[in-house]
């Protein structure tokens, strides 16, 4: 049995290495910052966030998660910049092989909804093309001050816990803390998390579009 476990762990190692080579680096791009009915809003896009490797793992039954963090900063040239507002937005993506449907759970700071997409292009548009994201009311911002927005995105596919589950299913030590070969493989899978960051131009409330 130990020989079988070692062979399967070796296979997982090769799988992890090949997956790391397949993943492209994502990038974020801000399209517009504007006033929408008294709210500071932003449009942005994530490129290479959902790639062929993510789509493959989804169809293998492994869910993916995409998280955004949008921060508004007060630009203070003679002092450290001040965080004014932070909002989060996340997507959990599962693939239903029976219905051939991508199920997407959308969570923000105030709500949670679930929707479905059958087409890959529609899925990518939904989770990567962000439009009219409301950040905060304009009244909480100083009309004479300068601000900028930072955005971070993180895409996760296979968790380390899932790898440990595989090991326990194979009859390994359930109290294993992730050392040795298994720990190395766990680290590789953890490194499959992809992330991107970007910073907008500096703006004032008088300078944004309406």
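Q: What amino acid sequence fits the structure above?
A:
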């Amino acid at each position: 049995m130990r020989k079988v476990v070692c062979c399967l762990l070796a296979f997982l190692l090769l799988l992890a290495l090949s997956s790391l080579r397949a993943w492209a680096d994502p990038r974020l791009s801000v399209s517009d910052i504007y006033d929408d009915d008294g709210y500071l809003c932003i449009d942005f896009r994530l490129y290479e966030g959902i790639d062929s490797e993510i789509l493959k793992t989804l169809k293998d039954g492994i869910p993916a998660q995409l998280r955004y963090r949008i921060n508004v900063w007060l630009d203070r040239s003679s002092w450290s910049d001040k965080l004014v507002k932070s909002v989060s937005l996340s997507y959990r993506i599962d693939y239903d092989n029976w219905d051939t449907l991508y199920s997407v759970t959308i969570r923000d700071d105030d709500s949670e909804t679930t929707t479905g997409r059958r087409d890959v292009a529609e899925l990518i548009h939904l989770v990567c093309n962000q439009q009219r994201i409301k950040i905060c009311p304009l009244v909480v911002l100083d009309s004479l001050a300068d601000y900028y927005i930072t955005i971070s995105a993180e895409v996760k596919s296979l968790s380390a816990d899932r790898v440990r589950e595989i090991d326990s299913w194979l009859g390994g030590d359930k109290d294993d803390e992730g050392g040795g070969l298994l720990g190395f493989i766990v680290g590789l899978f953890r490194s499959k998390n992809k992330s991107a960051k970007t910073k907008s131009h500096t703006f004032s409330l008088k300078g944004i579009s309406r």
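Q: And what stands out in the fold?
A: The chain is about 30% helix and 40% strand.
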